[in-house]
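This part of the workshop introduces the protein records we will be handling. As an example, a complete record with its sequence and its structure tokens follows.
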Amino acid sequence: MTAQLLAVPCSLFLWRYLEQVVPRDYGSRAGRARTAAAVPSEVVTRRRAQGKIAEETLPVACTVELQNVRKEFLIGGRRPNRRVVAVKRLDLGLAEGEILALLGHNGAGKSTTVSMLTGVLPPTEGRVIIHGYDVAQHPEEARRFLGVCPQHDILFDFLSADDHLRLAASLRGVQGGGSAQDLLRAVGLLGHLLGAPAGQLSSGRRRALCVALAFVGDPRFILLDEPTSGMDPYVRRSMWELLKKYRPGRALCLSTHYMDEAEMLGDHVCILSRGTLQCYGSPEWLKARLGSGYALTLSATQATRTLQVAKTALDLLQRNALGSWCVVV
């Protein structure tokens, strides 16, 4: 009888331990070293990025780093357990006071990169470091520095904008909304709109509320996944000015598929295609280096010949256009 009574707490303890350390598809598991206090590693001075075409920059003290990060997914279907590589060997760094724009088409790997930065997805290989903390090993410590605006609105339709700010502040253990209040004021969420249920707000104002929630508690690293989607031109421009205003003392990373947004906001632009870092540099350097470029669309009458036609056309272009560079999207 005594052995059976002891088995219950022992089983609960073992279940709780395995729940913490066994890997899973979403989120990060704690390692065995988590019994000790997490200590941030020294911030490494290094180059910001490595890619096919990258601007030569001076070494900089990075507060956020992706070190040789790779992400693979296992999918089923006709070929069970087939591995799909979403992000390939991404090496990036972000300094305080800098805005990094992740630019790419749908499926380029932007949202997967954002998910790894937040710890929602663990990298298959490599490390993600935020202010010296490895996100996979010490997610709680790393997230203290982090504010996130996800790609899709995560709001309670029955709560007002003011209720959302107070809820977010309570979860972060801070008083007031800080910079978030200024953001809402600038995009017109004042008076009766501040107290209106989120379900009654326009899509642009709902999006602005999500951006404002990322700034609650004034975190030092802000992640914005397509922050201005659904906004009208006036609100979008106002949001750009606010993001530039609140850049000092923070590192901001935003993903977008709008070239004008990346050019307006980004101190540096990282262009992704099919999970690969294609080029990196300041907007001015990229325009001078790459020029305007062209988009080539190929159509084939037979689907089986599509790849053959595309390969022949690309080979012809690269032989006759010296110094040309191709991104397949």
Summary: The chain has a mean pLDDT of 77. The first strand starts at residue 45 and ends at 46.
